[in-house]
Amino acid sequence: MNLQTYLSSTPPNLAKAILAFAEAVKRIDGKIRTAETGEAGSQNTFGEEQLKLDVLADRIVFEELKKSGVVAIAASEEQSDEIELSKEGEFSAAFDPLDGSSLVDVNLAVGTIFGIWEGKGFIGKSGKEMRAAGYAIYGPRTTFTIAIDSNPVEFTLQTDGDWKLTIEKMEIGEGKMFAPGNLRACAENKEYLTLLDFWAENGYQLRYSGGMVPDVHQILVKGKGVFSYPGSESNPAKLRLIYECAPLAYVIEKAGGASSDLEKSILAKKVEFLDQRTVVCLGSKDEVDRFDKFLTI
Ligand code: P6P
Asked: How many Cβ atoms are within 10 Å of 76's Cβ, its own excluded?
């Protein structure tokens, strides 16, 4: 089965929005494997240096979403404001066009993340209202994972440009694997240090690449594990709600996993502003519960 066949039972306009992201991913894939990785000489809304590939990937996604004709509003991590693409569009899409782009020059896997909501705009909405969410990974293989109100599935890009179904149903159980981000927070966040000691002292496999997308994908493919990125006063939690955490939490929870910002599911958080950051833990139910118990003072 390929992506188009899989989407034949999806509402047509939602399928068009998802296929627009899949088309953008194919184009970005080609650029990553050939383009130079230098700085673009500009900064994004967070004051982070943009790489040429960041800017290129951002432009490609906007082009494909506009071409689809079904996306009214799009918001990118690389832009300061949401952008209207179509007055008749049914959906709003938030995306990180190239998450972990600083890893490209060391040839580590990076990704594109997206979430699709009904209607116009994001403020006041929550992740659980998403119609679909997913991500691509540009690694040894280029894969496209989506969840549309059911268990996530993975497609792999073939040499003929088709997307072949490679994982029919992702499910998360329990198991000893951890991807701990923001370790520098441990200097002040002693509860986090205690949790890391627990994982290390109890034989957990460390799997952390610095790329959120492959680090979370690993939990879905292996069906176990936990990704954490809490903060401290000097090293606050930096991951973004609508561009990174909510779409990935949606995929994880549709696979039977859990997510948390230490108080509630990431999907229960209302979007207050576009560049909202959040503490995030994603993974198996027991491990997310353990994160909450260790870090809630
Ligand atoms: P640190 C990549 O820049 C990113 O946004 C996520 O993909 C990743 O999980 C995180 O930042 C890595 O942050 O603090 O480990 O460099």
From this structure: 26
Is the model's pLDDT at 105 over the cut of 90? no
Structure tokens belonging to residue 286: 């027991």
Q: Which of 226, 229, 235 to mutate to test the pocket of ligand 1 (most atoms within 8 A of CB)?
A: 229
Instruction: Point out the ligand 1 atom lying closest to the alpha carbon of residue 240.
Output: 5
Q: What are phi and psi of 23, to 5 degrees?
A: -70, -40
- 182 CB less than 6 Å from ligand 1? yes
Pocket test for ligand 1, best of 238, 245, 277 (most atoms within 8 A of CB): 238
CA-angle at 82, arms to 57 and 280, nearest 5°: 75
Amino acid identity of residue 225, one-letter, is: G
**62 membership: H or E segment, kind and range:** helix 52-68
Give 240's pLDDT tier (boundaries 50, 70, 90): very high
pLDDT at 198 over 90: yes
CA distance 293 to 220: 23
Tokens of 74: 């799009």
Q: What is the 3-state secondary structure (H, E, C) of 251-288?
A: HHHHCCCEEECCCCCHHHCECCCCCCECCEEEECHHHH
Domains and CATH numbers, the chain: 3-167 (3.30.540.10), 177-294 (3.40.190.80)
Q: Tell me which DSSP letter residue 22 carries.
A: H
Q: What is d(CA 175, CA 219) in angstroms, rounded to the nearest whole number?
A: 9
pTM beyond 0.90, yes or no: yes
